[in-house]
Design brief:
With 494 residues, the protein is an all-alpha fold. The protein is 65% helix and 0% strand. It is built from 15 helices and no strands. One of its GO terms (cellular component) is membrane.
């Protein structure tokens, strides 16, 4: 099934904006506090290392997608050849014309230095379809369980975060003498002195904001990623502006008042928290296939992706360094250091409200991308995606978008405190999606394509980290990650 038509494609720079928007979410806002705890030296080394690890696994996803395209093209070529032989045998006279194979070729014509046209990224093949092609039954089961837990968890977290951000902006500030956070949602939204039982509460505001957010973003789930192009471009500008404002205000505080925060250079006790923040801040692998397949001109995709990662790392370091040194006490969510106050300067008050709405801007674009990714993978699990158009309209267009969005909506509507879900989604399932699954997929894909096409067919999208030692290193690192995350969770409980 052709996924995109020429009119639906976009340039490599627009594709990189999509990836930037997907990676730079609310996870970035947890970095300054994590930097302050772990120390600026240890944090810098860790962030750059984890950015490199995330990039390496992103190249594995791209290589596996190219392998999956090659398998589909090989199967199509074999089908055409069989039909050609059958047609030839059924005719009384032999054919004199050539049978068009399109962009396919026999694998034997490729040498060691000639890239094969088998390998391409033109057809969008989601991670679930790759798992169906290359993994065993047990591997596929583990993959889909991990992916669904992570993506459903992400959608729930995003929905709740946006609704709570809007609630905090709309409702009156909670009095400082109310320290029991479990009672906040039952408080009146606008007047804390009111005792009317029918008063509009903070929980009511949260639920209205939640339904509004899902109602606005849900229509995008029924289409494809390309339809969110202008939304992506707009909110990308909002993100850059928000980051620039936070960095500029922190620099202004540093110049005017000097360093208020004094983080150490190295504090290994803060390593688990830092690790959890950094891993979540570089997550994009689950949605890469849907973002890169519509890109025009993928010849230097790896280089452009590396530049994107470098730019994101620079942003993260600037944000974390300025915040860690500018503030004596940092909130876990960095934007809470810029909460709106009764400021006499109207411009500063507007800026503070804008920063308080930063999670809304970031998650409003990430939500449709992740929902579309989950929808596509659910279709790959239950339907034959090679003949998707043969299914009826309800199965093809309605059922899976609804199944994608309803569970997170119900969960966050009745359970607004999803702290446990955040820990599990961003740690164990996140480690599986970012490290384990891309590694297992690429190892299986290489073996499968070598057996199918032979060693002479060159994959031009092959990862530069193709030596087996890199894969072993990632697997060992993944187990270390799980240990670090477990330590972090148990430390917080104690």
């Amino acid at each position: 099934m052709p996924v995109t038509e020429t009119g639906d494609q976009y340039s490599v720079w627009v594709g990189l904006i999509y990836i930037f928007n997907l990676i730079v979410g609310t996870g970035a806002l947890t970095l300054p506090a994590a930097f302050a705890r772990a120390g600026w030296g240890l944090s810098t080394i860790s962030l750059l290392f984890l950015a490199f690890m995330s990039f390496m696994n992103a190249t594995y996803v791209i290589e596996t997608m190219a392998c999956a395209n090659a398998v589909f093209k090989w199967k199509r070529l074999q089908f055409i050849k069989r039909n050609s032989v059958q047609d030839h045998d059924s005719d009384e006279e032999p054919h004199t014309s050539q049978y068009p194979y399109g962009d396919l070729e026999d694998p034997l014509v490729c040498g060691d230095s000639i890239p094969s046209r088998y390998y391409s990224l033109d057809k969008r093949i989601e991670l679930g379809e790759m798992a169906n092609l290359f993994l065993s039954k047990t591997g596929r089961t583990m993959f889909y369980c991990t992916l669904c837990v992570y993506l459903y968890g992400d959608l729930s977290i995003y929905s709740a975060a946006v609704a709570k951000s809007i609630m905090d902006i709309v409702c009156s500030t909670v009095p400082s003498n109310l320290t029991n956070t479990t009672d906040w949602d039952t408080l009146p939204c606008f007047n804390f002195t009111s005792s009317d039982p029918g008063v509009y509460t903070r929980l009511d505001c949260y639920r209205v904001a939640l339904l509004t957010f899902v109602g606005v973003t849900a229509p995008f789930i029924f289409s494809n990623v390309q339809k969110t192009k202008y939304l992506q471009l707009f909110t990308s500008g909002m993100r850059w502006l928000a980051f620039a404002i936070m960095i500029s205000m922190a620099i202004h505080l540093l110049i005017g008042h000097g360093p208020q925060g004094k983080p150490p250079a190295f504090d290994f006790t803060g390593m688990p928290t830092l690790f959890g923040a950094c891993v979540y801040s570089f997550m994009c692998h689950h949605s890469l296939p849907g973002l890169i397949s519509p890109i025009r001109g993928k010849n230097r995709l790896g280089l452009h992706l590396a530049l994107d990662y470098a730019l994101i790392s620079i942003f993260y370091l600037l944000l974390a360094f300025t915040g860690a040194f500018a503030f004596a006490h940092l909130s876990d969510l960095y934007t809470l250091n810029f909460v709106p106050t009764d400021n006499e300067n109207i411009f500063l008050e507007i800026v503070e409200y804008f920063l308080a709405l930063f999670p809304v801007f970031t998650l409003s674009t990430s939500f449709p991308i992740i929902a579309i990714t989950l929808r596509n993978n659910l279709q790959g699990l239950f339907l034959d995606t090679t003949r998707l158009e043969s299914y009826n309209f309800i199965l093809r267009k309605l059922l899976f978008p609804i199944v994608t969005v309803i569970p997170p909506l119900l969960l966050t509507y009745f359970l607004e405190d999803i702290g446990i879900l955040i820990k599990f989604t961003g740690s164990y399932a996140g480690t599986g999606i970012q490290y384990l699954m891309p590694t297992f997929l690429v190892l299986s894909a290489r073996r499968h394509c070598t057996n199918l096409l032979g060693l002479g067919v060159v994959n031009k999208y092959k990862s530069p980290f193709s030596h087996i030692a890199w894969a072993v290193f990632i697997l060992l690192w993944s187990f270390m990650c799980i240990i670090l995350v477990s330590v972090n969770i148990f430390e917080k409980k104690s």
